[in-house]
Design goal:
It is built from 6 helices and 9 strands, in the order H-E-E-H-H-E-H-E-H-E-E-H-E-E-E. By secondary structure, it is an alpha/beta fold. Helix 6 links the parallel strand 6 and strand 7.
Length: 212
């Protein structure tokens, strides 16, 4: 199927609440889009359309990068589990030399391509699971990826390997269930407006973290 056409037809260009510098292809309601995705592919049990929303962790990362561009300027950046690409696009606009945006979802890759074009930046799309690899990038960012235990355990091991190699690690997360905050250091906190249908509140207290 034409993933880019599907994304374009089922979203509208919107500005995220906490990062109005950006414009993204976003959806207003998760359930109808999820059902439409399964109908188009004639499959059930597909993952939720994470790519269609500006989640709190991604917004926090993007905001922090915009406010502190020296963190990524003239550096290589990897955004793992990039979703809509919000943080990756912020890094590109803040002056990163290269930005690799990683996802396992074909819809997300298509959404990131459309979103990068809408914001006038270039992302290198990386398809597939990178969590068992050793990243070579200067900066590794991850937003909202600690929502399942197996994923969280693999993600923190991946980020530790990047730290051991000298990379800067930035995590955007509103203390989701499996965030290993005991081994993290909080850098900054934001109050981010989010759709209540997606979260348990209209505003999520969300932090940017790094490894302690």
């Amino acid at each position: 199927m034409n993933y880019a056409a599907f994304v374009a037809e089922n979203t509208t260009l919107q500005r995220p609440s906490h990062v109005p510098e950006l414009i993204l292809h976003l959806a207003d309601d998760a359930l109808p889009l999820w059902q439409q995705t399964e109908a188009e592919l004639e499959q059930s049990g597909l993952p939720p359309p994470f790519w269609a929303f500006a989640w709190a962790g991604g917004q926090a990362l993007a905001r922090y990068i915009f406010d502190n561009p020296a963190l990524v300027a003239d550096k290589s950046v990897l955004d793992v589990g990039a979703g809509s690409g919000i943080a990756a696009i912020a890094a590109a606009k803040a002056g990163a030399t290269t930005v690799r945006a990683n996802e396992v979802d074909a819809f997300a890759l298509a959404a990131m391509a459309l979103n990068s074009e809408a914001n006038g930046v270039r992302l290198e799309m990386i398809d597939g699971d990178l969590l068992d690899t050793d990243p070579q990038d200067d900066v590794v960012i991850a937003g909202d990826i600690f929502y399942e235990r197996p994923l969280a355990e693999r993600a923190i091991a991946f980020l530790r390997r990047a730290t051991d190699r000298g990379a800067t690690i930035l995590i955007g997360d509103p203390k989701r269930t499996y965030l290993p905050h005991a081994v993290l250091r909080q850098v900054v906190t934001y109050e981010i407006s989010v759709p209540k249908a997606l979260e348990d509140a209209d505003v999520k207290r969300t932090a940017v973290w790094t490894l302690a």
